């Protein structure tokens, strides 16, 4: 627990520094975390040379605002993403009914989030495959530029319902690798894959897997108050906040975090003073309540947002307050995680 406390200590200072960040930091070449490498380099230590201060001993990875930690290991990635929306617990209405097995199963009008991501990314020239089949998680050598977790829940990466021999010793002759998708996701990220988490993907997904908690920003959802109107604060300049006003209205559940996110670039926050009610348990985060952030993680890129509870937020022209800004934020966040526009600098 000592390492854990050391990792989390100073979160408030990290947050304050992020709030005050401006474009004065200069280009990627002048960034404190260096420039993204363009070619593979031999791995000779767990911590690449010059990146010692970015090593997180709790998650056993290099993470944070450190472009030089990126792994350009897959040269043939396509302008394509995989949208993964499997739920192993609560299921948001915007996901519609559970999808059939396989890649790109039939969608209906009820699959609001899936339809929106396919449409929105198609408008910017990115192909989307979608699935809720845990066996299709991309892994080593995958050519997807990003995998997008859309409101997943609980142990979404566990292969439930697989028969085992209850009274036998471990049987190594069967393919009963029930958490193979965890291995695949970790290897995908380590090879330079992009990860995007939308709403419940950082709101109760893979609670008991530390690697995923780190991928989400060293944090997990604790609870939320009422689904209500609030004011979003745009914190800093970034590809995914480009075109957003300094303050804008939106309606959401406004997730609370425990532990508080660390080592990330904070992108958006909610002004808690704009909320009519709060959670009855979690005390909230006071003057700094982040809701979107990004980081480099274990060789890959990670971009996440807690926004996106209401189905109307995914429907163009719905009249939902802040819908156009939410769309812009999500689309640019995905593009940045893919590496098509500058990421997290």
Care to describe what's here?
- By secondary structure, this protein is of the alpha/beta class.
- It has one domain (2-161, 174-338): Class I glutamine amidotransferase (GATase) domain (Rossmann fold, 3-Layer(aba) Sandwich).
- The chain contains 6 helices and 13 strands.
- It has helices at residues 2-8, 11-19, 112-122, 180-190, 210-215, 323-338, and strands at 55-56, 61-64, 78-84, 127-131, 144-150, 194-198, 221-223, 228-234, 247-252, 256-257, 265-271, 290-297, 300-305.
- The strands form 2 sheets. Strands 1, 2, 3, 4, 5, 6, 8, 9, 11, 12 and 13 form an 11-stranded mixed beta sheet that branches. A two-stranded antiparallel sheet has the order 7-10.
- The longest helix is centred in the last third of the chain and has 16 residues, at 323-338.
- It starts with a helix and ends in a 7-residue tail after the last helix.
- Residues 1-29 have low confidence and may be disordered.
- Residues 1-32 form the signal peptide.
- Keywords: Signal.
- Pfam families: ThuA (PF06283).
- Residues 81-316 form the ThuA-like domain.
